[in-house]
Amino acid sequence: MDRLESLAAVLAARGFAARLVTPPGRVPSLHVVNPAATALAEDVYAGVGQDGQCWFWWPWAERIAAGDDLAAAAAMI
Fold this sequence. Notes:
This protein is an alpha+beta fold and 77 residues long.
C-alpha cells in the first residue's frame, strides 16, 4: 500500500486526482482520474509478478512499471 500512496503523491504533482481504495477482503488499488477529462480514469494495483519483483499493474494484469520506479509509472499512467 505504501507504493500506491507514493505513486498517488507523484501523480498529484502531475495534476491527476488519485485516491487509495481499500475494500474489505480485496486487493488495494489506486483510483486515478485525469481532471481535465474525467472519463479517463483507471485503477492501478501494486503487486509481485512471477519474476518475484514488485510492479505497478493495470486491472487487466499488464505491467505498468517497476514498483520502485514511480516516475516511469506516472509517465505511463
